[in-house]
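FW: tagging you since you asked about this chain on Friday. Here's the raw sequence from the shared folder, copied in full. Didn't touch anything.
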Amino acid sequence: MRSSHNLAGRQRMLNSTIYFSRRYGFLLLVLYLISPLLLAGCARQTIPMTGISMPLPDVTRVSRLLPFTSETDLSSMRWSRAFEAFHARLALEYPFTDWKQIDWDSLYATYAPQIAEAEAAKDHEAYYTALRQYLYQIPDGQVQIGAMPEYRESAIGGSFGFSVMGIDDGRIIVHVLDEDGPAAHAGILWGSEVLEWNGMPVREALAQTDITWSTYPPATQEGRSLMQQRLLTRAPVGEAATITFRNPEAEVPSTVSLYALADSYEMLDRTKLNRQYMSEFESPITTRTLPSGYGYIQVRFIAPTMTMPFPVRAFRSAVNGFVRDDAPGIIIDVRGNVGGTFAFVPSYAGHFYEGHRFYEDVAYYQADSGSFEVDPESRLRIEPRDPYYDGQVVVLINDATIGSGEGLPLALQGLPNARIMGFSGTHGSFGAGSRNINLPGDISVWYPLGRSLDEDGNIQVDANAAGQGGIQPDIRLPLNAGSLRMIYQEDIDFELQSAEYWLDNVPGATRDAETETGTDQETTASEEAVE
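HL: got it, structure written out here
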């Protein structure tokens, strides 16, 4: 989740702000750092990922300093009454109603009766499921609901022992396979083409696959399709499915019936490459020089931690080292970046700019006017920063790059020496700030409060009603059996290898073009990626 409004003259202070998680307090240092701001005009706010409420100035004034969430407590109300109040507030404050064409009246008419029915039956699972389904009608990865693991397990805890992926030639193939699972024992091989699911053409089955139990709602059509592919092969434990498939080199299809077995989500987790998680004991930035001589910066999330309280300084130090060593190219990896404090992004990007550039305005709902308005003090610009790097840059993205994580490819896309690379676009959920609503039944929900605008006042990055949005790659990597085999069977970082290949062959890189990893298959796949 991204933070919201800016405090005039406070951007430098952002570089020394500490980020905190839900599980650990660490609040005394926060109070020490921001105590000059807490002397007047306070209301109770909650620091995300701590769950701790404290007196702080209004969220629209401080949340660019720390990623604060404004909290509303409806937990003492009846389920139906709380849902009514929550719905009214969400419909009023959600910043993308028109952009995404959300029909709030229709949603309320559909789900309010389900909430009431669950309340009458005292059925907490039905209540939670209705709330989750309601929120997942909003295609926005920053609209979230607290997990209830037991209900998720009941819905998708079973696996048939494989997962599928759609590839560029239109086929749906098995790309993750449990060699000791139901599918393998039934004769399904890695790379098999799935043709039908329960008697239905597989693409029709995919289009009907429920995404309610995905980690968060997909925002783009591409993201939705990828999530449906991951969830097609999930089911309640014990549920049966009939699958028609054709093994590699087979002339005729085969049909088998399988039963879903509990797998602790192993098959699902194996499809989620490069996912990152926030922790105050992890470094948000890791850097190294690759054997190829290229610089590598992995930005896992955009926030300070106990192990790296000054990430802007760490990023600058990494760039400085690559400039000093005359690195012929830099690869910036934001695959799976889960976001954080988005005012850091212009500081990171400034090392690749010689001039100034507008980055964003943010508009928030103003109750007095009943409209979304920009606070002039919230404007962010990219300013040149020392050291300046003028070599070639590749930014690696994927569908799990979300929130502030999408900011760095946004800032660098279009520079003559930078390219965005990946199999897919980013998530397309770039909203600012957060409202946390505590509902009865020990349930919490979150939604963004602000929308990011470009210099012309247009919404940027967030996916629209047609599911178009996110940052699209300048170089879209080939999704075929060869690249999937390298990733899922041979444990090769195909995307990183493709970035190195592109740098080898673009004007401005000084390293001799050569294949360091060896096989003809790898070389061919990398060549396809950049041509």
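FW: The chain has a mean pLDDT of 86.
HL: agreed, and The longest helix spans residues 104-121.
FW: great, closing this out.
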